Amino acid sequence: MAKRYEELEKLASEVLVDLRKFYEDGNKAAGTRARKGLLALKNWAHDVRKEISVMRAESDAKAAGKSASKAKSAPTKKAPPKPKAKK
Length: 87
Prior knowledge:
Layout: H1 2-25, H2 28-73
Helix pairs in contact: 1-2
């Protein structure tokens, strides 16, 4: 998680610098860099979303496997035999 957090901080700080230059100073090149940085931030977010989905699915599969193994190992009760009808 620390790695992802550091990536986010770096991307956001780079974009903020260029956004300030563009909006406050009117630097057109900074606007281009800001747009490029925002796209990188969007792609980063998409990758993290996919990573989270995979991790969650793996976690759900492990949990389902544990509960399934418990169900298999638990003894099952059989119904008592039905009495035979007299003829």
